[in-house]
Amino acid sequence: MAGKKSSAEKRYAQSEVRRLHNKAIKSEVRTYARQFVEAVQAKDEKLAKERLTTLVSKLDSARSKGVLTRNAVSRKKSRMAKLFNVSFAEAAAK
Question: Where residue 86 sits, what CATH number does that domain have?
Answer without folding.
Answer: 1.20.58.110
